[in-house]
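Supplementary Methods, section 5.1.

A reviewer requested that the exact input to the structure prediction be made available. We therefore reproduce it here, unchanged from the version used in the analyses.
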Amino acid sequence: MKKVCVLLADGFEEIEGLTVVDLLRRAKIYVDTISIMDDYIVHGAHGINVQTEDLFDEVDFDEFDMVVLPGGMPGTLNLKNHDGVRYVVKQYAKEGRYVGAICAAPTILKSLGVLEGRRATCYPGVEDEMEDVVLTETAVVVDENIITSQGVGTAIDRDSGWRRKSKGNRRFHSLLIVFHKI
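The structure derived from this sequence is encoded token-by-token as follows.
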């Protein structure tokens, strides 16, 4: 069974984080919510508190096939400043495992060098932080194992593709090319 972990930090965008969890679980895919904070309760950007299943230090990330980074502020900054998150994201990218980043979270990938020479998209307000990335204006971009999307409005489309990948659909790669139409 494929496994996905969603990393949550105080200030995360609730729709981006929880839509991933909701849609994948409806598709019977294992999803673990992981707090990078010192508490299982993570405070969303709009005042919604979420109880996670695990704390970052409790997790064996070798068990997962995909890591998801929701955007939101200051959630993106909290993720970007966490040493463990930076390590996991770099390892997943290097090993060819899927890394997903929504809204402002692609700036995390950029800061780690993961997007060097790759196509990506991001929230229009953070484009200035994406120097030397081949930015597109499409809602969702898939470049090999890296999936980026612009924000709240693209969270459902992105997850539809991930549902197919996680179920092992052979056509996944070609479906991801037209992600937002799935």
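The radius of gyration is 15 Å. These observations are discussed further in the main text.
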